[in-house]
Amino acid sequence: MAEILEGAGRLDLVAHIRPGDAVIWGQACAEPLTLTERLIEQRAEIGGLRCFLGLPASDTIRPEHADHLSFLSYCGGGGNRALHRAGVLDILPCHYSTLPDLIESGALPVDVALVQLSPADGAGRHSLGMADDYLSAAIDRARVVIAEVNDQVPWTHGTRTLTAADLDVIVFTSRPPAEIVKSVPGDAEERVAGHVAGLIEDGATLQLGLGALPEAIVARLADRRDLGVHSGQIGDAVADLMEAGVITGARKTVGRGRTVTGTLMGTSRLFRYADGNPAIELRDTRHTHDPEVLAAQERLVAINSAIEVDLSGQINAEVARGSYVGAVGGAIDFLRGAARSRGGLPIVALTSTAKSASRIVANLRGPVSTSRADAGIIVTEYGVADLRGLSLEERRARMLAIAHPDHRTALEKESCP
């Protein structure tokens, strides 16, 4: 039976975590802040630990904590950027969808899982609250599972719940969860959003990547009917359209009537809407990113972003100006799924420039996160380039047309890779 504690004051992680353990916790809004803060406080007492980080929404982990902790992550977003710049973050360049299998097989070791849960229902079941994604695999693999039961975390529906019998330690808290506040899109982002929104028809099912662009796109869909969502994450804009009756899932071929997601990445607005709402269902990545599930979802519109795209359609979503700021992520799963979906649209959206530098390039300045064989529809503020079925020369012309006018002449002189 789980050890029960009221608040973190009496929590002694030294009694549960061994030197050299591999520790994992929920990412973004699912981070159990009380537990991770306590881990930082006791890191010297515990000894060297290997910590797997997802996308952070807090500043709990900082470079100076590398004195007793080592850090590994699949992504360089949020606070991970500072860790990578300081040279204390190692990168696991994997598809996001493979994380549960890597954990389950032991290739990605997990000894201790720190999780944030909702209060229990009448049957004593705690929901995973903000995320399932790779957490279910971590919980099943870990030697020790320590839970923060936070009464401000929503009770969310899904296929996984936990009881006290599944946990080694339970700490009861009451504090606002970490939030991801959407950034305000600029003029270029709004123009990109307009082009993408123009491609989305009534009854489509949406997958949404991270960032200001997907949220701006969703905000432009208020006049659509019966949209669905099947995505690795959702934010506040999805809650807005669900409440408005725009996102109903009524025409989905898989998960009809439900918004299916791996994580909630938003603010208290989203958390309140998700609390007890059976129309939102949390699933792990083995379902949200499953190629057969995605292919079976008719009119799946995958909307992802990129750091840069070359003239042949190759995509770099990981490295900008020599710094690891993105991820391989789940884009390739969804782009391939949308390409196989009947009436699907595999979309990558980005502004044409970043700080005056062209993001449409002749040769990628970072790794190939998505090959040109998987390129579908590329969108900038200057238009839509549908690359499907086009030769390299035809792609070159389409990509030049959506590059920033100030860079087209220089790009025309470059050879296509």
Verbal overview:
The chain is built from 14 helices and 26 strands. With 417 residues, it is an alpha/beta fold. The protein folds into two domains: 3-173, Glutaconate Coenzyme A-transferase; 187-412, Acetyl-CoA hydrolase/transferase C-terminal domain (Glutaconate Coenzyme A-transferase). The strands form six sheets. The chain has a nine-stranded mixed sheet, sandwiched between helices. An eight-stranded parallel sheet has the order 1-11-8-6-2-3-4-5, sandwiched between helices. Strands 18-17-24 form a three-stranded mixed sheet, with helices on one face. The longest helix has 11 residues, at 187-197. The model has no long low-confidence stretch (mean pLDDT 96).
Q: Looking at this structure, what is the CATH superfamily of the largest domain?
A: Acetyl-CoA hydrolase/transferase C-terminal domain
Percent of residues in helices: 25-40%
Strand content: 15-25%
Q: Domains counted in the coordinates: how many?
A: 2
- The third-level CATH topology of the largest domain is Glutaconate Coenzyme A-transferase
Short description:
With 417 residues, the chain is α/β, with parallel strands linked by helices. The chain is built from 14 helices and 26 strands.
